[in-house]
């Protein structure tokens, strides 16, 4: 038995997880391997890491570090202790006016670029997963990407490193005395590294091999170029850790030198008649100075052709291929010169489509969205039950076309009909994706034989690198010696033994003596609910999830559904299955905000919230569904009862106190109703009556949400009054829709779909009539209600599905920008405002518009970088308050560290209540601020 209590006493009870449900939730990363950890541990400090190393060695249980878990070759899974870094280790700092950036391993790579953008700088590595992957993985895999090439990867831009060796020694290369301390504390290690360097330099053939290998991208094995590029033992060791995939040490902090982020960019998609023609064009584009040249074959374009506005892609012939090309410059003159030369070059090629090189940022983003979402998008169109496999390699540009042709022949030989090829063609670094099942021995053998032929082709025929940027991982570990030869491989093993003598750091990764390791512990993807079955567990969704630090992420909810499906077919695991089924409701359903932000991050738009709503619905009894529908049909009476209950509760709170009110609730109401404890901050409803304005003379129709009508603001007029006052100032006439309606969101989010759809259809009926059959725009004052009315048309009857296409339903943010702001006289005030765009605002893509509105009112308006879903989820924050507390922890901390603001603005009353609870600040609709600064 492993004495986990010893570790808990050192790190904290909540930091050491052995619950089988939570351990299985972490059994998958983005690769096609599957290992179940014995424990998941979340350390907070370097002393915690040192304690973990000691515990690992004493108990002889291996350790694997995991940041975002977006790695593709199985580096971030373990059968021992999986050490999670994503919940902590997230601090970073821009240094020297952006010339450098310091960070911990749990920082999302894209966040660094966002912080560096005002300085005109960025980090060198630019992987396609930059908005999901974390810097621990970027360093551990020596990630590169689209424009990075060899010169700007983490290895070449490293300024300093702070790390802990398995021995527990902490080293920091930024310390001026670091070399002397290293020599004094670890003389044998320093001596051995110096000796290895000497041996390499005295071996001309090996020295030449190393130099030749690193002229192109190569992440196969350890970074032996450190022995060539550096002289002192500590410099060598720190650079050996880059690309070591967590097998040598733990990196607690790093500083990278940044690179200039070109201000001017010109991007275009070139379409060729075949992939060989595209390959032959690459050297000319590279010579011209293209920073990025991304190859996409016809199969990869087919996978995304329905997810892009570029409709002409669908008409391309079967052999076609494309190059996504980007030129960058710091000066206009340079870009103009490039454009002229490029036009001459394009005239010499028989392109299949007219090519426009655009400088429009939105169009550029659309083009890059195609490329960056390729891998998950391809995985999403796989056959049900099959697994997605992605690999990458690098060869010289001289043989790239030949290598591509031979790879396509390999696909045909092994019947990988859906295989695709894409990648960083400028560097000769291509990726390929294949899909297959691992359910039968002959299917595993098929993959084994394919890999054998692939290795022979890349290594023997084209003298290339089997891994160019994804890291060696488990899939290529058996072939490291094949590529590098016995002498270099002996150095790899010697290095591992020297630094990690017990071999407990991420065993099986990079070095593996088992020649069959790449076909063991393979992941199966059993068929589950259709709404999420496309998921390939890439993990892009996780950074968006409000419950990621509390319970489960969208990926983990899906991983557990698949695990339960596997266990159903194994009678011996009935007990374990029961445990997972009992745990799932809290971890996966109760603590899900169903906010849908995961769909924004997912390349194929999987909304795991829809799965949760579906499962909640299935868990509701027929009686509960019927009662909900009955309540929906009597919504005006329900609303009056709610207002009365809120008024009584507020009176009782002031008169009897919160504790006594909750005692009475438990005694008299809990047996009949599912009610949360009385929250002291609940506002008292404020009376408001719709104004009688004929829609014949109105400019717009006003749909006030039941939330707005019943949850007012302390010491403020009701929001509908404020909106009407603003409209009067702007000369806009609003026609109010009568009270007693609801968009259905409070029911639908709980899985009470019949009741929710009834109310939604009723609302659309009413909007159709009052908008003069779609002639007038419909203003909605609560952003989640706007989104609810506009989304999920399948919940509407056929007539309303037609009507919703003709109705113009707009959020108050859009209404304020279009109707109010042009007609208001504003007197902006010298003040600072924090702005929180709620989930529905983000899904509608109007967060910038919200910021613009607030910016028009004050001298400084800002969205906190940590802003995400508040986790309040309408009213779920009252039942599961820990969800809101966890979801807003980073944002609340960021607001605490910043100078206090004068205003805190949002556009959803329930979300504002959650924000108030977490930040202890008074949050209001931005409309109150707009009213304050506008003249009568």
Outline the low-pLDDT stretches.
none
In round numbers, the mean pLDDT is 91
The number of distinct helices, counting runs of at least 4 residues, comes to 41
For the largest beta-sheet, the strand count, sense and barrel status come to: 6 strands, antiparallel
Rough shape? globular
- Largest sheet, order of strands side by side? 12-14-13-16-17-15
Return the CATH topology of the domain at 264-469: Vanillyl-alcohol Oxidase, Chain A, domain 3
What is the CATH top level name of the domain at 264-469?
Alpha Beta
CATH superfamily of the domain at 264-469: FAD-linked oxidase, cap domain/gating helix
Q: Which structural class do the helices and strands define?
A: alpha/beta
Rg, nearest Å: 30 Å
Q: Hey, roughly how much beta strand do the residues contain? A: 5-15%
Which CATH-level-2 architecture of the domain at 264-469? Answer: 3-Layer(aba) Sandwich
User: What is the helix fraction of residues, given as a range?
Assistant: 40-55%
- The separation of the N and C termini measures 75 Å
- Give a count of the beta strands, DSSP E runs of length 2 or more: 25
Family: Belongs to the FAD-binding oxidoreductase/transferase type 4 family.
Enzyme class: oxidoreductase
GO biological process, one term: lactate catabolic process
EC number: 1.1.2.4
Description of the molecule:
Residues 33-261 form the FAD-binding PCMH-type domain. It comes from bacterium (Candidatus Blackallbacteria) CG17_big_fil_post_rev_8_21_14_2_50_48_46. Keywords: FAD, Flavoprotein, Iron, Iron-sulfur, Metal-binding, Oxidoreductase, Transit peptide. This is D-lactate dehydrogenase (cytochrome). By secondary structure, this protein is an alpha/beta fold. Among the domains are: 264-469, FAD-linked oxidase, cap domain/gating helix (Vanillyl-alcohol Oxidase, Chain A, domain 3, 3-Layer(aba) Sandwich), CATH 3.40.462.40; 526-619, no CATH class; 632-817, no CATH class; 827-933, Rossmann fold. The protein is built from 41 helices and 25 strands. The strands form 6 sheets. A 6-stranded antiparallel beta sheet has the order 12-14-13-16-17-15, sandwiched between helices. A 5-stranded antiparallel beta sheet has the order 5-6-10-8-9. The protein is globular, with a radius of gyration of 30 Å. The termini are far apart.
């Amino acid at each position: 038995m492993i004495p986990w209590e010893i570790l808990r006493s050192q790190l904290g009870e909540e930091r050491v997880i052995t619950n089988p449900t939570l351990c299985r939730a972490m059994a998958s990363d983005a690769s096609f391997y599957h290992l179940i950890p014995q424990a998941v541990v979340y350390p907070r400090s370097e002393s915690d890491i040192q304690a973990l190393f000691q515990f690992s060695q004493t108990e002889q249980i291996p350790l694997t570090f995991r940041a975002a878990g977006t790695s593709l070759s199985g580096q971030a899974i373990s059968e021992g202790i999986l050490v999670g870094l994503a919940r902590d280790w997230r601090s970073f700092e821009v240094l020297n006016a952006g010339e450098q950036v310091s960070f911990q391993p749990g920082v999302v790579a894209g966040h660094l670029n966002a912080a560096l953008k005002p300085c005109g700088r960025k980090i060198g590595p630019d992987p396609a997963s930059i908005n999901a992957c974390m810097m621990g993985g970027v360093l551990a895999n020596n990630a590169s990407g689209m424009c990075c090439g060899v010169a700007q990867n983490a290895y070449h831009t490293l300024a300093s490193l702070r790390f802990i060796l398995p021995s527990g020694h902490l080293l920091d290369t930024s310390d001026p005395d670091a070399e002397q301390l290293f020599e004094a504390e670890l003389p044998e290690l320093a001596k051995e590294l110096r000796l290895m360097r000497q041996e390499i330099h005295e071996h001309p053939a090996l020295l030449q091999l190393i130099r030749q290998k690193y002229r192109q991208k190569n992440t196969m094995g350890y970074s032996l170029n450190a022995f060539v590029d550096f002289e002192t033992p500590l410099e060598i060791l720190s650079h050996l850790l880059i690309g070591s995939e967590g097998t040598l040490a733990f990196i607690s902090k790093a500083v990278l030198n940044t690179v200039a982020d070109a201000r001017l960019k010109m991007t275009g998609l070139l379409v060729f008649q075949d992939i060989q023609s595209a390959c032959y064009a690459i050297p000319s584009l590279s010579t011209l100075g293209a920073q990025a040249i991304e190859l996409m074959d016809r199969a990869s374009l087919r996978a995304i052709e329905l997810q892009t506005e570029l409709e002409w892609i669908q008409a391309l012939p079967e052999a076609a291929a494309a190059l996504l090309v980007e030129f960058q410059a710091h000066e206009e003159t340079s870009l103009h010169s490039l454009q002229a030369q490029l036009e001459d070059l394009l005239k010499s090629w028989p392109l299949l489509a007219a090519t426009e090189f655009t400088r429009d940022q939105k169009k550029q983003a659309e083009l890059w969205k195609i490329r960056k979402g390729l891998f998950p998008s391809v995985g999403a169109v796989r056959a049900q039950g099959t697994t997605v496999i992605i690999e990458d390699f690098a060869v010289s540009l001289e043989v790239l076309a030949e290598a591509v042709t031979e790879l396509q022949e390999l696909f045909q030989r092994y019947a990988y009909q859906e295989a695709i090829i894409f990648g960083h063609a400028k560097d000769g670094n291509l990726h390929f994706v294949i899909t297959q099942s691992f359910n039968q021995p002959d299917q595993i053998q098929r993959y084994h034989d394919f890999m054998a032929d692939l290795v022979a082709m890349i290594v023997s025929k084209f003298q290339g690198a089997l891994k160019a940027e994804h890291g060696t991982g488990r899939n290529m570990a058996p072939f490291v010696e094949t590529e590098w030869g016995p002498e270099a491989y002996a150095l790899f093993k010697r290095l591992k033994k020297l630094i990690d003598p017990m071999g407990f750091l991420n065993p099986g990764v990079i070095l593996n003596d088992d020649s069959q390791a790449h076909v063991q512990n393979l992941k199966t993807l059993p068929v589950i609910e259709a709404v999420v079955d496309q998921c390939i567990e890439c993990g892009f969704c996780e950074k968006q999830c409000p419950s990621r630090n509390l319970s489960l992420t969208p990926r983990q909810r899906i991983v557990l559904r698949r695990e339960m499906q596997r266990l159903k077919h194994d009678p011996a695991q009935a007990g374990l299955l029961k445990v997972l089924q009992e745990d799932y409701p809290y971890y996966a359903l109760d603590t899900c905000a169903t906010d849908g932000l995961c769909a924004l991050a997912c390349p194929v738009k999987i909304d795991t919230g829809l799965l949760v709503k579906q499962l909640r619905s299935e868990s509701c009894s027929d009686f509960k569904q019927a009662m909900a529908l009955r309540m929906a049909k009597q919504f005006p009476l329900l609303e009056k009862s709610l207002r009365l209950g809120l008024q009584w509760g507020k009176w009782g709170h002031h008169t009897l106190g919160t504790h006594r009110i909750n005692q009475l609730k438990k005694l008299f109401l809990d047996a009949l109703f599912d009610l949360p404890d009385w929250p002291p901050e609940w506002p008292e409803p404020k009376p408001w009556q719709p104004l009688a304005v004929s829609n014949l003379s109105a400019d717009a129709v006003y749909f006030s949400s039941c939330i707005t009508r019943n949850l007012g603001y302390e010491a403020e007029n009701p929001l509908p009054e404020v909106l009407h006052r603003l409209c009067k100032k702007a000369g806009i006439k609003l026609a109010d829709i009568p009270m007693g309606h609801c968009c259905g969101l409070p029911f639908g989010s709980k899985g009470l779909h019949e009741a929710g759809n009834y109310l939604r259809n009723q609302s659309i009926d009413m909007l159709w009539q009052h908008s003069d059959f779609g002639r007038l725009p419909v203003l909605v004052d609560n952003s989640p209600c706007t989104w609810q009315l506009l989304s999920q048309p399948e919940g509407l009857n056929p007539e309303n599905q037609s009507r919703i296409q003709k109705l113009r339903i707009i959020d108050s943010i859009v209404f304020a920008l279009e109707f109010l702001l042009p007609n208001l006289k504003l007197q902006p005030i010298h003040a600072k405002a924090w702005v929180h765009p709620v989930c529905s605002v983000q899904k509608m893509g109007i967060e910038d518009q919200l910021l613009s509105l607030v910016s028009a009112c004050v001298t400084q308006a800002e969205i906190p970088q940590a802003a995400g879903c508040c986790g309040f989820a309408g009213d779920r924050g009252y039942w599961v308050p820990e969800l809101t507390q966890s979801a807003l922890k980073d944002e609340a901390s960021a607001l605490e560290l910043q100078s206090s603001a004068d205003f805190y603005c949002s556009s959803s009353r329930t979300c504002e209540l959650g924000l108030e609870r977490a930040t202890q600040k008074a949050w209001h609709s931005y409309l109150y601020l707009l009213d304050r600064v506008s003249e009568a």
